[in-house]
Design brief:
The radius of gyration is 58 Å and the shape is elongated. A three-stranded antiparallel sheet has the order 1-2-3, with no helix packed on it. Strands 4-5 form a two-stranded antiparallel ribbon. Among the domains are: 4-43; 156-278, no CATH class; 285-329, no CATH class. Helix 2 crosses helix 6 and helix 7 (229-240) crosses helix 9 (260-282). The chain contains nine helices and five strands. The protein is α+β, with helices and mostly antiparallel strands.
Amino acid sequence: MDMYTIGRTFSSSDITSKRKFTTRAFVDDRGASVEHLSTSISMSGSKRAHDENLPATPQNRSFTFVDGFAPKKPRLSAKNARQFTSQEIQNIQRDREAQRLTQAREKEELVARKKEELDVEQLRVVWQSIRDMAIDWALSTTAERIESEWKVLVREFQPGQGAPITDILARFSLQRVLAQTQVLAPTLYDLLQRVSGSHESTSVHKDRNLIVATTICMLVKSRNDHASEFQTTTCMYFLACGASRSLFDVLNHAGLTLSYTQAVAKLKQLGAERLEEMHTVSHTQAVMIIWDNLNIAFNVTEQRHDSKAHFDNGTTATLIPLFGVEFPT
């Protein structure tokens, strides 16, 4: 790069250090200005010795370099200002007025939208509170209605004091339980039907109404231990099937049957009732008695000294009334 000096030199001498600053401006062949700063220092020995005993005083000097080749910004003046016509001024005023109206309209729309959102939120809160109140009222009303219906069902399914076991077994029917529940407790009946899905069931192999009836009997027993028509019937069935005592305990806790002790007591009561009935029949009409021997095996899987497999032998008698046969008085 060819460089040449354009002939400007600035120098400054420092009194203390005798520094000499020389600034030269160069211009390369592409027209770019380059400034070069050179410093020459000359110090004498005597002055150096004298300077070591003097305190160092900082010298703050600033230099400002002005590029004379940089273009100057034009100064604004009245004669250089643009002259607007009246039509242009009116157009500018009209544009500003339209912009102001647009901003005002947008602000009004924003305020209206915020107000609408606030109104919607308030309506939603009010509607939610009304809905909660309606649900609470419906639940409390339904609970009161179901409570009153339960009391009616308990009285209906509770056998009278000293009622014969024979009559309880004779009149028991799950279909009767469903029919009476539908009449006496329609709210409870509809609720259980919807919960179990019986009103939508189309299965021909499984009757879900029997499940609903069994549930009703179990719930009635949980409200009153004396309402045990269903449990009395099932305990007789389990005794006839040879259910173990432990199985009775499990089913009793589930509400499906009576305890083993109660089942045995009910069975003895049933035997006494049938024996009295036999005496009555035998005194009023001709009868026929059939005798039979029984051999019942009691198997024990793991026999011990106090628990062994054995047979129980017995004799049974069946009394059959004879109709159309003269009975001597």
